[in-house]
Specification:
six-stranded mixed sheet, Ubiquitin-like (UB roll), 6 strands, single chain, 120 residues, 4 helices, alpha+beta
């Protein structure tokens, strides 16, 4: 029987009360016909917390420790850093897509975006 490809997602905790549920790992079946954009939208709507104190949650998405996208609850669509990046290029040797989301405060978020856009 063929092994199913998975999306394995994790995120950092957003407060002390959230820590009791750590690790925040979730696994979904990976449809190889999907796109990274659709997967990020699914993570935004079904996985990332939206009701945080202190403003609009903003996340960076990492794959293999590289920032691949910016996800903000205030934006309709995620911003993919490398426009020509394909889903296939992000799948690891086990056939899975592993994503980690990191929440950033407003002041750090702006500097991260500036730093990313200067490098791409």
């Amino acid at each position: 029987m063929k092994k199913k490809n998975k999306i394995i997602i994790t995120r950092n905790s957003v407060c002390l009360a959230d820590d009791i549920y750590a690790p925040h790992e979730k696994k979904w079946n990976l449809d190889l016909k999907s796109s990274i954009h659709k997967i990020l939208q699914q993570c935004k709507s079904e996985y990332l917390p939206t009701n945080l104190q202190g403003g609009t949650p903003r996340w960076i998405a990492k794959c293999d420790n590289n920032v691949i996208a910016v996800v903000a609850q205030s934006c309709k669509e995620s911003t993919i850093i490398k426009r020509k990046q394909t889903l296939e290029s992000l799948i690891n040797s086990d056939g899975n897509l592993e994503l980690r989301f990191e929440l950033l405060p407003e002041n750090e978020f702006k500097s991260v975006i500036k730093n990313i856009t200067e490098k791409t």
